[in-house]
Amino acid sequence: MKWTKQRLNNLFFFLGCAAVVVMLLTFDVSFVELWDHLCHAGYWLIPIIGIWIVVYALNAFAWKAMIEGNLGHKAPLSFWRIYRLTITGYALNYATPVGGLGGEPYRIMELSKDIDKQHATSSVILYAMMHFFAHFWFWFLSIFIYLALAAVGDLPITPVIGTMLGIIVVFCLFFFYLISRGYKNGLVKYVLGGISRIPGLKRWTLRFWASHSESIQNIDQQIAALYSQDTKAFYKSLILEYFSRVVQSSEVMFMLLLFGIDNGGGLDGLTITFLHSILIVSFTTLFANLIGFLPMQLGVQEGGFVLSIAALGLSAALGIFVSIICRVREIIWIVIGMLLMKIDKQE
Prior knowledge:
The protein is mainly α. The protein is 82% helix and 0% strand. It is globular. The two termini are 18 Å apart.
């Protein structure tokens, strides 16, 4: 078994390294232009990259709350280990199609070294659901930020924009309903039911269910139990995950300030700039998640940044700059995640 985990660890490490190479070779600009953009960013790269220390810390605290709520007691592993698994898990999610095919299995494999496999699996699933759930709250509440800014005349509101916002509201409410059902009744059996409807996978699903039915039912019971019994852990994790996205928006604000876009400066101007940054991140992540089957969301994230920034009346050139710097930041954190994987492996 140790040898199997060793091989899986090496496979995940190889995926991350391959992703870095692919990302370097698929920039939409030449390396000369890339270097110019990096020089333009200058010292602003430090807070842009560094803010993710805080973002990942909030993610790690949210996951820790899920683990402890699921176990019913304090997590038997240090926060530093949870923090490292958080960073490495997200690095692998960046590297693989349909984010989660790399990060979540890796987290389950590593977490099962500290707690039993069923609780490790349910804790990772619970956190993945919470991460997804918080995305919808971020998109949903961003609509009201847009409407508030439109009400004071800062942003336009047209029939087309109003229709789009209405569609997003319905979209979010629908998924709120689906996710809440998953929390109340468990999720794994419903996911397997969906997979069984895919041509060619029905027999595999039936065999998997037959050999793991007891474990699947236990995992679903643990998921449902957390939602109904430990609401404190549930809402603590949700709030932390939501605010991680708010903090993430700071990197876009730093880039707007770099271009002198501060809406007149002062506290009011910086507040408006930060709210614009939240809207940019919200629209971009919504766009990227709708087409999340692409490895590292190549081209999708860039297009999302250009469209969302242009929608706020800013130049497309700024959108390209933001997307490139964010891609550089992703590469740097993938490298950090891969290094942490090897550090964690040696302990």
